[in-house]
Design brief:
Layout: E1 8-16, E2 20-25, E3 30-34, E4 50-55, E5 65-72, E6 75-78, H1 83-93, E7 105-112, E8 115-122, E9 127-135, E10 137-139, E11 142-145, H2 151-165, E12 169-176, E13 183-186, H3 192-203, E14 207-215, E15 220-225, E16 227-228
Parallel strand pairs: 3-5, 9-12, 11-13, 12-14, 13-16
Antiparallel strand pairs: 1-2, 1-4, 2-3, 4-5, 5-6, 7-8, 8-9, 10-11, 14-15
Helix pairs in contact: 2-3
InterPro entries: SfsA (IPR005224), SfsA_C (IPR040452), SfsA_N (IPR041465)
Protein name: Sugar fermentation stimulation protein homolog
Family: Belongs to the SfsA family.
Length: 232
C-alpha cells in the first residue's frame, strides 16, 4: 500500500479524547491530527517521538491531518486502523500472501449472517471469508491483540466459526504494523473472552495467519508470516 500524497513529519505532543492528537510540525507550528485508533494504543504512545501525518482529502473536515505512524526504538509503527483492510485486500489480489493466493475474485465488506466480514475471496473451487484485524501492541517479542476489550471482535470470530461449520474456508488475518516483534498471541489479560473464543475458533478449523508488515513513510509492504501461540 503506497501513500497517495507525501506525508508530513512532526513530533507527538500528546494523544487525548481517544481520537485526537497534538503534533508539533518541523516548522514549529502545532496542529491537531485525527487518531483513527480507538483502542488504548498500549506500547504505541511516546510523547516527543517522531510521527508522520497525512493531509485530509476533505477540506471541510474538522481535523486537517490524520496521524499515520510513530517511530519507536528506531522503527516505524503504523497506527492508522483504516489501512490493514486495504493492505490485506491488495496482498490477496496480487498473491503476496502464499496461504491466500490463487483467488480470482476478491471483494471487500461482505455481509454474512448478522456480521460484515472484511474480505471474501473466491476461485472456481472455493470461497474464503477473511476477517482482518490491526495489531500494534508489543509485549516482549510478542504482538498481541486486542489492546482493549472488543465485543465486536468476538462477534466476528463466532461468525467465522459458523461459516466454517457450513464447510466454508475461514481465516483470521492479523496485520501487525510493527517490525520489532517475532510472534503473535492474543492478549489474554486484556480480553480473556476474545482469547478463549480465538482458541475455540482455531479448534473448529478457522485458520490464523499473523502477517508482519514493514511500515515506511512512502508505503506499507508485506514482510513475513509469524508463528502464533494461543496458550495463556
Amino acid at each position: 500500500m503506497k501513500f497517495e500524497t507525501p506525508l508530513i513529519h512532526g513530533y507527538l505532543i500528546k494523544r487525548y479524547k481517544r481520537f485526537l492528537s497534538d503534533i508539533r510540525l518541523d516548522d514549529g507550528s502545532i496542529v491537531v491530527a485525527h487518531c483513527t485508533n480507538s483502542g488504548s494504543m498500549k506500547t504505541c504512545i511516546e510523547e516527543g517521538a517522531e510521527v508522520y501525518l497525512s493531509p485530509a482529502k476533505d477540506p471541510k473536515r474538522k481535523t486537517r491531518y490524520t496521524w499515520e505512524m510513530i517511530k519507536l526504538n528506531g522503527d516505524w509503527v503504523g497506527i492508522n486502523t483504516m489501512h490493514p483492510n486495504l493492505i490485506a485486500y491488495e496482498a490477496i489480489k496480487t498473491n503476496k500472501i502464499k496461504a491466500l493466493s490463487g483467488y480470482t475474485h476478491v471483494q471487500r465488506e461482505v455481509k454474512t449472517g448478522d456480521s460484515r466480514i472484511d474480505i471474501m475471496a473466491q476461485n472456481e473451487s472455493e470461497t474464503c471469508f477473511i476477517e482482518v484485524k490491526n495489531v500494534t501492541m508489543k509485549d516482549g517479542d510478542f504482538a498481541r491483540f486486542p489492546d482493549a476489550v472488543t465485543t465486536r471482535g468476538k462477534k466476528h470470530l463466532v461468525e467465522l466459526i459458523r461459516l466454517k461449520k457450513e464447510g466454508i474456508r475461514t481465516v483470521m488475518l492479523y496485520i501487525i504494523q510493527r517490525s520489532d516483534v517475532k510472534q503473535f498471541a492474543p492478549a489474554h489479560q486484556i480480553d480473556p473472552e476474545y482469547a478463549n473464543t480465538l482458541s475455540l475458533a482455531y479448534q473448529e478449523g478457522v485458520e490464523i495467519i499473523p502477517i508482519r508488515v514493514k511500515v515506511r513513510p512512502e508505503e506499507i509492504v508485506i514482510d513475513q508470516v509469524l508463528e502464533f501461540d494461543l496458550n495463556p
